[in-house]
Amino acid sequence: MLGCGTVGSQVVRLMHEHADDLAARASARLELVGIAVRDTAAERAPWVPRELLTDDAEALVRSADVVVELIGGIGPVRHLVLAALDGGASVVTGNKALLAAHGPEVHGAAKRSGADLYYEAAVAGAVPVVYGLRESLAGDNVNAVLGIVNGTTNYILDEMATKGLSFEEALAEAQELGYAEADPTADVDGHDAAAKAAILASLAFHTRVGIEDVPVTGIRDVTAEDMAEAREAGMVIKLLAVARRVTDNGTRGISVRVHPALVPATHPLAAVHGAFNAVLVEAEAAGRLMFYGQGAGGAPTASAVLGDLVAAASHKVHGGNAPRESTYAALPLLDPEHTPARTQVEIRLVDRPGTLSAVAGIYGRNGVSIESVRQTGTGADDARVTIVSHRSTEAALARTVAELSEDLRVHEVVSVMRVEGV
Amino acid sequence: MLGCGTVGSQVVRLMHEHADDLAARASARLELVGIAVRDTAAERAPWVPRELLTDDAEALVRSADVVVELIGGIGPVRHLVLAALDGGASVVTGNKALLAAHGPEVHGAAKRSGADLYYEAAVAGAVPVVYGLRESLAGDNVNAVLGIVNGTTNYILDEMATKGLSFEEALAEAQELGYAEADPTADVDGHDAAAKAAILASLAFHTRVGIEDVPVTGIRDVTAEDMAEAREAGMVIKLLAVARRVTDNGTRGISVRVHPALVPATHPLAAVHGAFNAVLVEAEAAGRLMFYGQGAGGAPTASAVLGDLVAAASHKVHGGNAPRESTYAALPLLDPEHTPARTQVEIRLVDRPGTLSAVAGIYGRNGVSIESVRQTGTGADDARVTIVSHRSTEAALARTVAELSEDLRVHEVVSVMRVEGV
Q: How far apart (Å, rounded) are the C-alpha atoms in residues A39 and B385?
């Protein structure tokens, strides 16, 4: 085992407590031969056997049949994982950053040596969505994946929605409770979700998608006011990882992105609260499937690691392999500009006859059709109007918003937000 | 392929439409070599190749690498499946009845010949809960499985709840719309759910559970009044397949049953509407997981079949095997009498001082503690009271209900229903 933090120490505990169960299921006793850590003298959970701690990760990797990598990040870990796979050790990892940045290299090493590569813990903790996409849906064609895959941001948005907090207040609360880190960048700016989106999209579409392919908008700009207005419109705001197969308008390809989105309050994803995760998959034959559960935390993530470990160990005994990276479809990633999206735009404008028709004209000239217009606030010379568009390209929507901003009757474009799940 | 009904014809269609995708994922082209049907002259979907139809299932089974069994039921199918496995052909089946009645025999045949046995389609259609329990959760210990696994009864209960229909009215509507069969016994009396419960419990607890081990109560006795009162109490009524590991009171074992149950309206299972299915799993490390999707229908069930088919085919090419039947834990099935349960009892009684205290006394004497008492209707000499108990054994609850029935102050025990999900 590489690393012995929150997840690692739970893996150690469960391997010990359930040794007999795991042996029966893997057809072999799982023997923990070493735990590589940076500081062997640091304090550990009481059940971690100190005699197994080592700071020589390279030697450990060379001697193990299965390497469980729970250090995370890229740097030296990339080298260790590649060394493990090159040496024929199976790898079980929860490292989304490594897979999203160096997926082809890591998968390639596994394929060359015939080793297994398992990574259920890399996406949505205990929620078995890697299994779901990689194995259960192997006979189907996925059209879309919509996921709440970051518990920190879901917790923050939930607190904003239910308690009327500002982003800053909710973040501070999440930090106090340990749901957000001191430096919350990776979570609140969407980078963590983007790595997971890349992994999910790769699996769903049998196409290589790296984190560099995923445009990201985080949740820093979501305001308490946005939340209140969403509620009024029967919606909630969620940070979504969205991967879609697009076949409109002769364009064929996939679109992958992470952004806050308005979701109808009746949509299954709207009911995902706190630090829970859920991934909704729309497949051609299966229709709508949802996987729901705890997306983080020591024990839930350890559950995913141990499921993978049993599979990898069982293959060592009986033969067989984890499914290999599947990239045969090689679908093109659509330029974000050509990606279809529905958007809600909120503007402050002059409340005078003809203004709304001018606004509608701007939409029409840019080829964006309007689904609904709602007046959300009134002032003599300062009305607020919320406009939801039908599906249109990002480029057309961007042109529309630019023209709105320049129109003299429009005081301000208050917010622009995507709408999903309708 | 054996059988070419609703699911089978969708499998044929998807195998044809997605031949290239399936070939890439299975590492081999899937060639449909024959379709055994009772009547080769009967009308078929236009895409079913008539030249592949045969009435000689036995010859077909002997010549195939993988047999997809979609006839259902036991009778001659049992023989065909065993013949396929004995001959080394992998079997993909959606046959819950066969597995729940003859699981050990069928799994044994697969193990003896080294063939794969896959059956995702046997439980909850497209919802990948067989994968989830058999593979994803292989490293965890499941404490409970609560499933809505029969779409027909869920549709009927949903119609009763939302439209105030009686059971008979909702059933007639479901039959008209094709959600229920002309003879609805297997669905409404819970036998279909019981077969699925047996399969889920076997997987969850690594223990042999057959359909004969599953006590069943169907939904025929659920009344419009029960529904209305459930709503008033913030609950809904669902037909649940419940499998639990029990370790209370020194008793250790599992309990598996199917019955209508009151579920809090805020519980994830309460949000499963119409013909959708969902299975909630509570595992020691993973916590609460939910799998949700379409539980029936041609295309969704075909999606599950094709996922299994890709796995089985891939093993034929690359080696490896589906996980074998895992029964090492061999947990005892608890006598239903010793199974813990929470129950809601509704009684009509004399509204006089001291009556409620007498009722509470009956609970107390039988060792059943009361969680809540609600007066739901009043009449001078005819009050309605709803009593929800804490967890207690079935035997103690049965004694309590018997004593209530005999008490002179109690006019009638109106209903007794289990409470789950709290």
A: 63
Residue A181, marked binder: yes
Question: Distance of CA B148 to CAs A34, B169, B197, B238, Å?
Answer: 43, 21, 10, 7
Determine which of B140, B276, B317 to mutate to test the interface with A (most A C-beta atoms within 10 Å): B140
How far is the alpha carbon of A19 from chain B, nearest alpha carbon, in Å? 10
Regarding whether A234 and A108 lie in a shared domain, the answer is no
What is the spatial distance between Cα B127 and Cα A400, in angstroms, rounded to a whole number? 41
Considering only the beta carbons, identify the residue of B126, B285, B310 that sits closest to A302: B285
A240 lies in some domain: yes
Calpha distance B269→B292 (Å, rounded): 9
**Chain A hits for B131, Cβ within 8 Å:** 128, 131-132, 135-136
Distance set, CA B206 to CA A361, B253, B372 (Å): 65, 12, 36
CA distance B19 to A172: 53
Beta strands B66-69; B90-93: pairing state: parallel
Based on the domain organization, do B308 and B277 belong to the same domain?
A: no
Q: Cβ of A285 and B302 within 8 Å?
A: yes
pLDDT in tens, B208-236: 999 999 999 999 999 999 999 899 889 99
Q: Is B96 annotated for ligand binding? A: yes
Has B163 been annotated as catalytic?
Answer: no
Catalytic residue among B111, B196, B238, B316: B196
Q: What is the CATH number of the domain that holds A86?
A: 3.40.50.720
A139·B306 Cβ contact <8 A: yes
Are A169 and A231 contained in the same domain? yes
Contacts of B329 in chain A (CB under 8 A): 21, 24
Specify whether the CB–CB gap between B422 and B280 falls below 8 A.
no
pLDDT of chain A along its 422 residues, tens only?
A: 999 999 999 999 999 999 999 999 999 999 999 999 999 999 999 999 999 999 999 999 999 999 999 999 999 999 999 999 999 999 999 999 999 999 999 999 999 999 999 999 999 999 999 999 999 999 999 999 999 999 999 999 999 999 999 999 999 999 999 899 999 999 999 999 999 999 999 999 999 999 999 999 999 999 999 999 999 889 999 999 999 998 766 778 999 999 999 999 988 899 899 889 999 999 999 999 999 999 989 999 999 999 999 999 999 999 999 999 999 999 999 987 888 899 999 999 988 888 889 999 999 999 999 999 988 766 667 888 999 999 998 899 999 999 999 998 999 999 999 999 87
- Binding residue per annotation — A7? yes
Name which of A136, A286, A306 is nearest B294 (Cβ-Cβ).
Answer: A286
* Structural domain count, chain B: 3
Mean pLDDT computed over every residue of chain B? 94
Q: Tell how far CA A144 is from the center of its chain.
A: 13
Residue B88 has pLDDT above 70, yes or no: yes
B123 in a structural domain: no
Residue B302: closest CA among chain A residues belongs to which residue? A285
Q: Residue A71's domain spans which residues?
A: 6-118+298-318
Cβ pair A367, A395 in contact under 8 A: no
Among A7, A119, A140, which would you mutate to test the B interface (most chain B Cβ atoms within 10 Å of its Cβ)? A140
Select the residue of A136, A141, A303 nearest B286 (Cβ to Cβ): A303
A63 is in an annotated binding site: no
pLDDT tens for A121-139 read: 999 999 999 999 999 999 9
* CATH number, residue A414: 3.30.70.260
Nearest CB to A292 within list B14, B268, B307: B268
Burial of B251 (0-12, 13-18, 19+ CB in 10 A): middle
CA-based nearest residue in chain B for residue A19: B139
Q: Are residues A171 and A265 in the same domain?
A: yes
Measured between CA atoms, how close is A48 to chain B, in angstroms? Answer: 17
Q: Give Cα A281 to chain centroid, integer Å.
A: 13
